[in-house]
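RECORD TYPE: inverse folding
INPUT: structure tokens
STRUCTURE:
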């Protein structure tokens, strides 16, 4: 099937970050006033952390950021390069060169906007035993503008795509770009998929999220993100994931011929597939404690596995099972990384 997939079938927009990952002693966390399993945005005191990892701690580099992670996983499973196109903003520096190289190695066709005066966004991944602490500096990722999508070559990539995926994180950067992509998807009657991404999106960026929701054909989220959305909306069923899913599906939608679908993950509990007339559960394979290396990136991997099958026209149950496979594989590896050839069986 993969040989028939067209180049550029899937377009994603998000925040490209270069993950700089290294094993460090506990003293290193203390030095930067961080705790194990932190996931924070960098403040001024954290800024030297990235150079120190590179200079002193045998750091590894990986193309990161939520959407780019999902597209890398999708490409790994699809096995044919350049099915996925990625848009985001980077700086004019060595880190951007590394990001380009890593994206290319993964088979992702990255078309970065370049900010001349802001460094490429980075995320420090600090490994202490089985714990991983994250410190993200968005930097140039914040500088993406709709102008980049208006360039003729990029505009053609958006127009020619068959599927579109955007993270809620991107709502903090360029809502006009999201609306442009959403409008292209609607005009061509092609699926537009989105992720709730994090509780803070619903808490602080609800209006741009509600603006784009009428275009969304498939919405992804985990239980914390779904609860945050329901709470921000004042829904009485904010503790009941099934009821939240039903309400998400029922929100106003522009293309009524394709009813919205909600796919809600809940860690090791079953994934919920919520459609306007049904709710299905998909079991998640339990892993032994010693198999779990790192749960960071599991959500990105789930979407990547889903997309790998979705763009091949597979049924939703196959897409979700592949999402669960991808998440389970990623959890056994450090960071959002994979090893070997994919072993997913339909």
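DESIGNED SEQUENCE:
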């Amino acid at each position: 099937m993969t040989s028939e997939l067209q180049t550029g079938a899937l377009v994603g927009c998000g925040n490209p970050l270069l993950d700089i990952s290294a094993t460090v002693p506990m003293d290193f966390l203390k030095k930067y006033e961080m705790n194990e399993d932190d996931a924070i945005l960098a403040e001024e005191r954290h800024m030297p952390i990235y150079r120190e990892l590179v200079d002193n701690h045998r750091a590894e580099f990986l193309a990161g950021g939520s959407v780019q992670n999902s597209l890398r996983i999708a490409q790994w499973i699809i096995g044919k390069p350049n099915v996925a196109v990625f848009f985001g903003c980077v700086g004019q520096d060595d880190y951007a060169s590394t990001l380009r190289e890593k994206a290319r190695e993964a088979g992702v066709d990255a078309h970065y906007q370049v900010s001349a005066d802001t460094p490429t966004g980075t995320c420090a991944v600090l490994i202490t035993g089985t714990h991983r602490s994250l410190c993200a500096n968005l930097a140039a990722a914040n500088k993406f503008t709709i102008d980049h999508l208006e360039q003729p070559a990029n505009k053609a990539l958006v127009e020619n795509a068959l599927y579109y995926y955007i993270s809620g994180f991107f709502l903090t950067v360029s809502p006009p770009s999201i609306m442009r992509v959403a409008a292209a998807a609607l005009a061509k009657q092609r699926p537009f998929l989105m992720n709730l991404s994090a509780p803070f999106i619903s808490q602080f960026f609800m209006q741009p999220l509600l603006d784009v929701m009428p275009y969304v054909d498939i919405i992804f989220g985990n239980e914390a993100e779904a609860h945050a959305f329901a709470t921000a909306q004042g829904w009485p069923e904010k503790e009941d994931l099934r009821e939240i899913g039903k309400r998400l599906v029922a929100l106003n939608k522009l293309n009524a011929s394709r009813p919205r679908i909600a796919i809600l993950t809940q860690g090791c509990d079953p994934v919920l597939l919520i459609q306007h007339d049904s709710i299905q559960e998909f079991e998640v394979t339990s892993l032994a404690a010693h198999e779990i290396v790192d749960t960071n990136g599991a959500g990105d991997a789930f979407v990547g596995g889903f997309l790998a099958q979705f763009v091949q026209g597979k049924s939703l149950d196959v897409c979700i099972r592949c999402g669960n496979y991808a998440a389970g594989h990623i959890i056994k590896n450090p960071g959002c990384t994979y090893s070997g050839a994919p072993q997913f069986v339909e």
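NOTES: The mean pLDDT is 93.
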